[in-house]
């Protein structure tokens, strides 16, 4: 079989740094392991379509390994080129870089798996950091120091405490729940969540969170919102101009889920007007974020490149998980059910929309 792993432009450097898939290779000897079984293993880049190494390999690729951090955007056209593709593994969590609708309609032999749970703690910790960075006005305060300045009043005038605030998560799955757990000791006024799946009563009790069924009510009551749901047709642009306008004036928004859940230009407008007091997170569309992406330059942002889910600890977990998926596939053993996003063309995950 031919297994193709997509590293980002400069993938060799990534390997040397043991970053992302480099970790899969270096720590687990993926190449040696696959080649000893008689498979062909290729590491490639996904540069501009005009110069895409990946496109050259797609027609005879059996298994594709990608990451969400430098995603290879597998649109319908590319999926059609990949005539032999049977298994697509996301080394991490979030497979929205595949056109899942297209797979559902036209690729009945393709399964998409990810390493569920592998980096959820890493992201939950980043969410907490992002919330604090925003409400403590950390970025300009730190910039004062490196610029040789000292103006306490100037930064204190936009600084708040988390205690006594209403904080809500869109999505109370693995990351959302861990965010609520980590918020609990801060003694917020209220912790709420918006999700079509309810937490079990004992889980709700553990974190003292209430489910809000109306999205409008959720938007209007939160001082801080964190987004922790997958990107698919129902969540693409969920935070559009209308939704942002329904948020409390002066509220903060943190998004470590996917960039395209938030409307790029509507957000810039809302932050510039001050309606949204600050925005932080690490996800963009597209990735890597172009130099002129306006979220890089808007005021009161705590943006970083997409790295929350790829801490060195997380890399080990998703590298191991990737190898386990491959092992199950080669030995015709069942996959961990929670890893299966699409099984033979059909959406299998409960997190990509309510089943009617
Ligand atoms: P999960 O599957 O455990 O939880 C997702 C939750 O979102 C589920 O409870 C689901 O019911 C809910 N949901 C789905 N559609 C919704 C909607 N329309 N409105 C409200 N809730 C909705 O997933 P997990 O592990 O918590 O990850 C969530 C997302 O975070 C991933 O899909 C991925 O996009 C992103 N992520 C980002 C990472 C990063 O490095 N920044 C790393 C890992 C995940």
Keywords for this structure?
single chain; globular; 356 residues; binds 1,4-dihydronicotinamide adenine dinucleotide; 7-stranded parallel sheet; 14 strands; alpha/beta; 7-stranded mixed sheet
Q: Would you kindly provide a written description of the structure presented here, covering whatever features stand out?
A:
The chain starts with a strand and ends in a 9-residue tail after the last strand. It is α/β, with parallel strands linked by helices and 356 residues long. Helix 7 crosses helix 10 (174-183). Helix content is 36%, strand content 17%. The strands form 2 sheets. The chain has a 7-stranded mixed sheet with strand order 2-1-3-4-5-13-14, with helices on both faces. It has a 7-stranded parallel sheet with strand order 8-7-6-9-10-11-12, with helices on both faces. Mean pLDDT is 92; it is low at 9-14. Helix 14 (264-273) links the parallel strand 10 (251-255) and strand 11. The longest helix has 19 residues, at 312-330. The structure holds 1,4-dihydronicotinamide adenine dinucleotide (NAI). The site of 1,4-dihydronicotinamide adenine dinucleotide has 32 residues, from helix 7 and helix 10. 1,4-dihydronicotinamide adenine dinucleotide (NAI) binds at residues 92-94, 119-120, 123, 170-176, 194-197, 228-231, 234-235, 256-258, 282-283, 306, 308-309, 351.
Write a brief caption for the model.
With 356 residues, this protein is an alpha/beta fold. The protein has helices at 11-16, 21-28, 30-36, 53-57, 76-81, 100-106, 120-135, 138-146, 152-156, 174-183, 201-207, 215-221, 241-246, 264-273, 312-330, and strands spanning 2-7, 40-45, 63-66, 87-90, 111-114, 166-170, 190-194, 209-211, 224-227, 251-255, 276-281, 301-303, 340-343, 346-347. The longest helix has 19 residues, at 312-330.
């Amino acid at each position: 079989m031919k297994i193709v792993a997509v590293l980002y432009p400069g993938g060799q450097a990534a390997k040397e740094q043991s970053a992302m898939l480099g970790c899969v290779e270096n720590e687990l000897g993926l190449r040696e392991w696959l080649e000893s079984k008689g498979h062909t293993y290729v590491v490639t880049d996904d540069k501009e379509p005009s110069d895409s190494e990946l496109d050259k390999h797609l027609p005879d690729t059996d298994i594709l390994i990608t990451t969400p951090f430098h995603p290879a955007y597998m649109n319908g056209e590319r999926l059609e080129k990949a005539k032999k593709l049977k298994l697509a593994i996301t080394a991490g969590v979030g497979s929205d870089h595949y056109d899942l609708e297209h797979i559902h309609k036209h690729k009945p032999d393709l399964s998409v798996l990810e390493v569920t749970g592998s980096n959820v703690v890493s992201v939950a910790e980043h969410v907490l950091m992002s919330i604090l960075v925003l409400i403590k006005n950390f970025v300009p305060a730190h910039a004062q120091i490196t610029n040789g300045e000292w103006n306490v009043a100037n930064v204190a005038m936009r600084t708040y405490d988390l205690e006594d605030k209403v904080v809500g998560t869109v999505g109370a799955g693995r990351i959302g729940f861990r965010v609520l757990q980590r918020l609990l000791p801060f003694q917020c006024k209220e912790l709420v969540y918006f999700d079509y799946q309810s937490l079990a009563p004992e889980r709700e009790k553990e974190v003292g969170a209430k489910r809000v069924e109306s999205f409008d009510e959720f938007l209007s009551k939160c001082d801080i919102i964190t987004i922790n749901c997958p990107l698919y047709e129902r969540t693409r642009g969920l935070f559009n101009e209308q939704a942002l306008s329904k948020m409390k004036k002066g509220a903060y928004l943190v998004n470590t889920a996917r960039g395209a859940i938030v409307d790029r230009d509507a957000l810039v407008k809302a932050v510039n007007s001050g309606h949204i007091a600050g925005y932080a997170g690490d996800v963009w569309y597209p990735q890597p974020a172009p130099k002129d992406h306006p979220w890089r330059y808007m005021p009161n942002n705590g943006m970083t490149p997409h790295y929350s889910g790829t801490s060195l600890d997380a890399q080990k977990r998703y590298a191991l998980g990737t190898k386990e998926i491959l092992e199950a596939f080669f030995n015709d053993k069942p996959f961990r059910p929670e890893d299966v996003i699409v099984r033979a063309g059909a959406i299998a995950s409960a997190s990509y929309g309510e089943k009617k």
